[in-house]
Amino acid sequence: MRQPPDPRPASRQASDRGAAPDPRVFGSGRNRDGIVLPLTGAVVAIAVAVVTLGSVAVVLAQGTGFALMSADWIAVRFTVLQAAVSALVSVILAVPVARALARRRFVGRGVLVTALGAPFLLPVIVAVLGLLAVFGRNGALNSGLGALGLPAISIYGFHGVILAHVFLNLPLVVRMILQGWQAIPAERVRVAQSLGFGPGDIARHLERPMLRAVLPGAGLAVFLICLTSFAVALILGGGPRATTVELAIFQAIRFDFDLGRAAVLASVQFGLCAVAVLVAGRVTIPSGLGVGLDRPLVLPAPCGWRRWVDAVAIALAAGFLLAPLMTVAARGVSGLTDLPVAVWQAAGRSVMLALVSTGVTIAATLTLAQAVIRGGRLGRLAELAGMLPLAASSLVLGVGIFLAVLPFANPARLALPVTALVNATLALPFALRLILPALREIEMTQGRLAQSLGMTGLQRLRLVTVPRLRRPLGFAAGLVAALAMGDLGVIALFATEQSQTLPLQIWRLMGAYRTELAEAAALLLVALSFGLFMIFDHWGRRNAGS
Amino acid sequence: MKSALIAAGFACAATLAHAQTPVLTVLAYDSFVSDWGPGPGVEKAFEAQCGCDLRLIGAGDGAALLARARLEGGRGEADIVLGLDTNLTAMATETGLFVPHGVTGTLDLPIAWDDPVFLPFDWSWFAFVHDRTLVPTPPKSFRELADSDLKIVIQDPRSSTPGLGLLMWIKAAYGDASKQIWTDLADNILTVTPGWSEAYDLFLQGEADMVLSYTTSPAYHLIAENDDSKAAAAFDEGHYMQIEVAGVLASSKNPELAQQFMAFMLTDAFQSVIPETNWMYPAKTPEAGLPAGFDTLVKPAISLLLTPSEAETARAPAIEEWRGVLAR
Hints:
Helix content of chain A: over 70%
Order of helices and strands of chain B: HEHHEHEHEEHEHHEHEHEEHHHEEH
Largest sheet of chain A: none
Mean pLDDT of chain A: 81
Number of strands of chain B: 12
Structural class of chain B: alpha/beta
Largest sheet of chain B: 12 strands, mixed
Order of helices and strands of chain A: HHHHHHHHHHHHHHHHHHHHH
Radius of gyration of chain B: 20 Å
CATH topology of the largest domain in chain B: D-Maltodextrin-Binding Protein, domain 2
CATH architecture of the largest domain in chain B: 3-Layer(aba) Sandwich
Shape of chain A: globular
Strand content of chain A: under 5%
Low-confidence stretches of chain B: none
Number of strands of chain A: 0
Largest interface: A-B, 65 and 67 residues
Number of helices of chain A: 21
CATH superfamily of the domain at 30-59 and 334-546 in chain A: MetI-like
CATH class of the largest domain in chain B: Alpha Beta
CATH architecture of the domain at 30-59 and 334-546 in chain A: Orthogonal Bundle
Oligomer: heterodimer
Number of helices of chain B: 14
Shape of chain B: globular
C-alpha cells in the first residue's frame, strides 16, 4: 500500500503516540493573564460544583436513610445501558452525515445545518409527540406500511428509547463533528491535495486524527444527557422496564419523600458522570493537525459512489430529523392566533430569562475554559466541574436550592432568578464542550505569538480569541439560549402566583385539556428557541474565522 | 442578573403594598391555579367576601404538593394545601403538618366522609376514556379489557396520582388477584407516561384506544368543544374514586382566615366553579345543579375506595407488584 508522507507538522506527530502536548507551556505563571484567568476560572468551577454537588449535600442532610432498593440498581443498569447505546449510535450515525455536510455544497445547506439544531431544543413531550406522529402506532410510517399490506412496527421498547435519544442528540453530534471538520487547517488539505491524496488517504491522515479528538467528547455529551433522561425513556420504553435513575429520584422525592435515597441516587448519577468524563479524557487524542492561517477551507468533494453515499446520508438524516418537526409545526399552527395574552407574556419572560442565562453561561464558560487549558492537573478538575451539571438531577438541584434558600427568603419570590441561575448552570457543559476544543487549539497555535506580543486580557480576547472562536461561540450561545427557554424542571418547585414561563404555560394548558392551545404554545416555544438559536448561530457563522 | 434584581425589587414592593390586607396563601396543583382552571373564579369569589388577598400558588400535582409542604416543613408561607387525594392523606396526616378543618356540613359524595383533617372539594371516578366512533363496544370490565386487543395508555404510579389511583382501583376490586389482572393487562398497555397530561395527549393523538382518566373527562369535550365522541367505559366491578381534599397547615399565621376559606370551599360560590373548570364533580352540588351535559356521563353502580390507611399500607407493595409484572 502506498504510504504518502504525513502532511502534519512533525512536532504534532508525536501526539499520536500518546505524548499529548502540554498546554501549560503556553500559559505559565510569567504571564500576568495566566495567573488572573485560572483564578477567576477556579471561582467559576467552584461555583458550579457548589450549585450541583452542594444541592445534593443539602438534600442528603435532610434525609434519614441512605439505602437503595434493588429496583434502584435495576434502574442504574438500564440508565447506563441506554445512555451508552444512545451515545454510540448517535456518534456512529453522525460521522457520515457530518462528513457529507462538510464536503458538499448544495442549495439550502446552510438552512439545513441550522434546522438540524432544532430537535435538540424541543420540549420533551413535544419531541415525543412529534416522533409518535411519524413512528407511532397511528403514525405516518405505520400508515404507509399498512397501505402496503406490511405488518406494523412498534416504536415502544428499548429501540424506541434509542430512536428518541438519537433523534434528540444526533443533530448536536453532527454539529460538533462538523466543527471538527471545519477546524482542519486549510493548509493541511492543500498539502494533501498537492501530494495527490485520494479520499482514503485524507480519511487516514486528516479525518481520522480529527475524529479521534472530537468523537469522545461528543459521545460523552450524549451519554451524559441521556443519563438524566426520564419522560422520553419511560414513554417510548413502554413502561417500567425503562425506569431510569431520574424517575427513581422523582418517586423518592414526590411519593416516598425519601430525601436520603434521592440524594444517594443523585450522587450515583454524578459518579457515573465522573467515570464517563475520565474515560472520555483517556481516549481523546488531540488531533495534532497544527497551526493554520485561518484560510477558508474547501474540502475536496470526491465523485463517484462517495457522492451518492453523501447524498443518501444527508437525505436520510434530514428526513429523520425534520419529519417529526414538521408534524409539530403543522399541529400547532392553527391555534397560534387563539393564544391568550398570558401565554405571550410568559413567552416574553422566557426570552428575557434565556438571554440572562446565556450571558452568564458564556462568560462563565470562557473563564472556565481558560482555566482548564492553563491549569494543568487542576485544569482537569475544573473540566470535570464544568461537566457535572450534565449529570445533575434537575429535581434534586431544585429541591437542594429550595431547602438552601428557605431559611432566608420565600422561594416563590426567587423563582425567576433561581431559574436563570439553574438554566445557566445546566447549559454550561454544552458551551464548555463546544468552546473548549476550539480554545485549546487557539491557545496552542496562537498563544505563543500573542504572548510574545504582550497581548493580554480583553485585547487578546478581542483580537486573537474571539475571531477564531466565533463559530463555536455563536453555536454555543445559541444552544444555551434555546436550552434556557425550555427548562421546566426547576421552576415547577418554585412555583408562584402567575404562570411565569412559557414551558409552565404549556404544561398548564395540557393539564386543562387545552391540547390545541398547548400545541400552539409549544410551537411558539420551539419557534422562539429556534429564533434565538439562529440569531446567535448566524453571528457565529458569518465570516467565521476570517 | 439585572432582571433578577428588578424582580426581587418588585417582590419587596408588592409585599409592602399588601401589608395592610391579610393574605391567605393556598398551595394547589398547577391545573387548579392555571388561567383555565378553577383558580381565577375561586379567587374572585373569595376575595369578594373575605376582605383579604387570596394567593394561589401552583406546585406540580397532588404528590408534588405534599412533597412541597413537607420540604417547607412549617417554615413556608402557605396556609392551606389544596389538591391531595385520599391515597395521600394518611401520609399527610402522619406528618403532623396539618390541623383539623373544623367544618361541619353535609357533602354529596357516594360515600360517607368523616376525616377531621382533610375536607373534600371535588371528586370523580377513574375510568378508561375512549372514542365512541373508534371503539363502539368498549370492554365492561378489566377482564374484558385484558381479553381485548385494545391498547391503553396509563400513568406511572410512581410519579402520578391517577397512576396510583389505577393501582388502588385494581387492588380494591380484585384484592389478592390483582397480580393476575396486571399480568393479563400487560399486553394491552401500550405505554406508561409520567403524568396525566402526556397520557391524555397520546390518546387524543390516536396513539392509544383508551386512556386512564375520569368519568367526567368526556364532559370537557362535550361542553367546551361540542364533541360527543368521547366516552368513559363503565366497568362492572365498580370504579375507584379520586376525592380531592384540602387541609389547613398548622404553621398558618392566619388560622381564622384559613378556617373561613375551608368553609367557603363548600359554598355554591366555590362549588359552582368546579364542574366546568376542573371537570370533576363538586363535593357539594350547588343549588343550581350540575351543568347541562354532566347528565350524559357514565354513573358507575359501584364506587370503590380504600380508606386512607388501607391505601397507605397497600401503596408500596402494589407499586412493587405492578413494576414486577410490567418490567418483565
